[in-house]
Design a protein that fits this description.
Blueprint lengths: L2 H15 L2 H20 L4 H10 L8 H9 L7 H5 L5 H13 L4 H9 L9 H12 L8 H8 L3 H19 L5 H12 L3
């Protein structure tokens, strides 16, 4: 895949699809993902495309998210059916494929993984997971947490972000996605 035309094509699709605040967030995620890709030796173009397009479906209605994900062939869990917003990463990957013809498996998987994480995530998925949370326009992330977390290894960064996300979800709804729990278990087991 020739990266420059893909970057332009995907960026144009995202710009035409998202509100201004969501577009600003997506641009910052793409920028931070590129920085992390350089640091952890992952192809920067993949980080850019995953970052800019990760929320392509984020502003869709829950019924639209469910419909898109019923078309992607991956099935729906009970928790996804009850909380369709969890599907926006999957729906974004599906839309990127359908609307732009983009089919890089690693990028599409990273987009699917960015909401809850999952055990066995690859480097790009981990980078996007972290970039989505730590990008500088996220007002709920303190500068101190961002600064402290940015200096960690990638595994430590993912664990720190995941634990923050899990705390927020526990307070808000009390229902954690099984994928998040499995990722947490994996990271804790490998932390020693």
């Amino acid at each position: 895949m020739d990266s420059i035309p893909w970057r332009s094509r995907v960026a144009a699709l995202v710009e035409a699809s998202l509100s201004r605040p969501r577009l600003v967030h997506s641009r910052e995620v793409a920028r931070l993902a590129c920085e992390l890709c350089e640091r952890f030796r992952v192809e920067e173009d993949k980080g850019y495309i995953a970052g800019i397009a990760h929320d392509l479906a984020r502003e869709k209605e829950p019924s639209e998210l469910l419909a898109l994900c019923q078309s992607d062939g991956l099935g729906l869990s009970d928790i996804e059916g009850q909380a369709p917003l969890l599907l926006h990463g999957r729906a974004s990957a599906f839309l990127l494929q359908r609307l732009a013809g983009y089919a890089e498996p690693e990028v599409l998987q990273a987009m699917r993984d960015h909401v809850t994480g999952r055990s066995g995530m690859g480097l790009l998925s981990r980078i996007l997971f972290v970039a989505d949370f730590l990008e500088p326009t996220r007002e709920f992330v303190s500068p101190e947490f961002r600064r402290r977390t940015s200096g960690l290894s990638l595994q430590e960064m993912v664990l720190a972000v995941l634990e923050r996300k899990m705390h927020y979800v526990r307070v808000a709804s009390g229902v954690l996605a099984p994928e998040s729990l499995a990722l947490h278990k994996e990271l804790k087991e490998n932390a020693g």
